[in-house]
Amino acid sequence: MAKNFLRIFLAVTLLSGCKAGQQANHPSYPLDPVIEKKIDSLLKLMTLEEKIGQLNQLSGMGELTGPSIASSDHAQLIRQGLLGSMLNVNGAKATRQLQEIAINESRLKIPLLFGYDVIHGYKTIFPIPLGEAASFDLEAIEQASRIAATEAAAAGQHWTFAPMVDIARDPRWGRVMEGAGEDPFYGSLVAKARVKGFQGKNLADKNTIAACAKHFVAYGGAMAGRDYNTVDISERTLYEVYLPPFQAALDAGVATFMVAFNELNGIPMSAHKDLNVDLLKKTWGFGGFMVSDWGSVGEMIAHGYSATPEDAALAGFKAGVDMDMESRLYVAHLKNLVEKGLVNEKEIDEAVRRILRIKFRLGLFDDPFRYCDTIYEKEMLLNPRHLEFAKISACKSMVLLKNQEVLPLSREIKSIALIGPMADNQQDMLGTWQGQGEAHHAITLLSGIKQKLPHARILYAKGCDFTGNDKTGFAEALNAARNAEVIVVAAGESAMMSGEALSRTQLDLPGMQKDLIIELSKLGKPMVVVLFNGRPLTIEWMDQSIPAILEAWLPGTMGGPAIADVLFGDYNPSGKLPITFPRNVGQIPLFYYHKNTGRPTNDAQRYTSRYIDSPSTPLYPFGYGLSYTTFEISTPELSATSMGPSDSLLVSVKIKNTGNRKGSEALQMYIQDKFGSVNRPVRELKAIKRVDLEPGQETVVKFAIHPSDLAFYTADMTFKAEPGEFVVFVGSDSNTQLQAGFSLKL
Ligand code: GLC
């Protein structure tokens, strides 16, 4: 019966005229006239209450990802057509049960849309996104999202609230773990890779899910790195730093956007019509829909922007927030607002159209149960191929920060002391936003080393916790270290020390870990610290006293075997830092694309932009990461020293593997615009090329520069290149001094 009704009604639609939604003309996904016709006809059948129901999203009660909520009778709301989407409902079985109510018991049988935070894996958990970004390997990042989408779709999910594309330049902010770091250019590349990974070629495929570019916009600019805090930035910074990854996600065809919690320059983002509607939907032509963040429409009261819940509903809806996640104000007030004439039903139709457009593209009207196959779900979750790639992804994510002839460790070692709160810790390996990942599936570093060296004596001691000042475990740890050839320390932050609402004022190793490491270092044995963290840490003391440091982030389900592969040289680390590591919190914000100022930093000269109590340079710069081999990179050679408006320039560098083992280098090209109608950064990343070389092998790498690469928001905010002198830098991190000059003549 249900299917027949749906078929009859859809058949009717093909005869009726259609009016595509306004402005949805972005080339990343052209409107489908057949779908638009079907939406037209469905809208004609819907009551105002049913239309508003499509704008209403509620959370399942199993796993709350925001402040607590009153329970609701979801089944009844679905039957009444007053609930169009749910989040935090997991599994083919659970989603099928609710979908059956929508299809079999509601009047119009409009399929539910299920969303979930698939941030770095669904059941197979990958490194946290900041760790994935450290791979500087876009194909690997896309593949990880592809696998996450495959597992999530198999488990009933249609939509992920990812990628988080917020640029972050303040590591006190807990959500720095969730993005791709500080750089707008690299963040844009990663945004595209993640959208393509999640959405694949066709949203209706069984292994793809709709993606969500979040949090629109400038959430990472929270003052003092305190989550949800005020953002007050210039229009130039907004356009140069925070918007580019969102535009990149849109160019990649992202199906949805999520609005940010924060106020931007005095107005809550949920009310920022100029950005959510005028820029995103009209100027950029976005044709999908915008969802609020958890309760963010209702939070406009706390912001001091809306006086009443009805005012908040009006503000959010008029500002382009199509779907209301968990503030429950649309379903409570929009009908009244229409009756008062403050909202036009045509505006409601436009929001409903955008949501139905995605439901149609997902194939939910053709087969509402296509993502509810429990047999397929069992095949896909934790599939061995997925786990194998999760290990590769974790290997690629690791960044070798320091190595004074300790790594790689020999496999002939007879005894190893493995010490620290992350050594035998399954739960925290998964990091925050661990989706449906389960700790008991995670392989710890202890297990990874045991698998790697089954005959070695591995002396494990936790030593201390992440927090508190208890040193009673030190004795056992020191004893283990005294009886071993090598000391491996697994230290850092627990999973819940970074992520949402998890900002920190101090960025050192928490608890007694620093004391423990210093005590261990006094034994004078070969020692490596493996860092597990969701953000840059201020570890200048460690860099000065420990011979080897490996950044492992929070590496996911396969972290243990991956780290063992790197420690023993089966994988030569090739990761690069996607975010600057400051020496201390006092330097923050500290990022590589800073301005020169009128008194450029010079720690040796008083009247320059510097500190008297700290070097001004970072501990480790953006793009930094060592290898077990070495590379020699030549000074860049240019195909010409000037170019006109229709020319391009070729930049060539030679790179040679001068070590004794195969290695991979992520060559980075930066450009400095020496003078402009506004002051320009000392350099900006413009290209990355990864090169794999055998020992002794040499190759030439070429980068092309076009005038469009030199465009920026000029004094009057026109985006264009200006004639003048430029410097191109090529090297292994953002500090490279290998350079050549050229000019642009227009
Ligand atoms: C949270 C987060 C957002 C997430 C949403 C649903 O508060 O800010 O990133 O997608 O709620 O869980």
Q: Order of strands across the widest beta sheet?
A: 11-16-15-14-12-13
Structural class category: alpha/beta
Main beta sheet, described? 6 strands, mixed
CATH architecture of the domain at 393-587: 3-Layer(aba) Sandwich
pLDDT < 50 runs, ≥5 residues: 1-6, 8-21
Strands, total number: 27
Radius of gyration: 27 Å
Average the pLDDT over all residues and give the rounded result: 96
Give the CA-based shape.
Answer: globular
- CATH homology superfamily name of the domain at 393-587: Glycoside hydrolase family 3 C-terminal domain
Beta percentage is 15-25%
The CATH topology assignment of the domain at 393-587 is Rossmann fold
Distinct ligands: alpha-D-glucopyranose
The CATH class of the domain at 393-587, by name, is: Alpha Beta
Features:
22 helices, alpha/beta, binds alpha-D-glucopyranose, Immunoglobulin-like, Rossmann fold, five-stranded parallel beta sheet, 746 residues
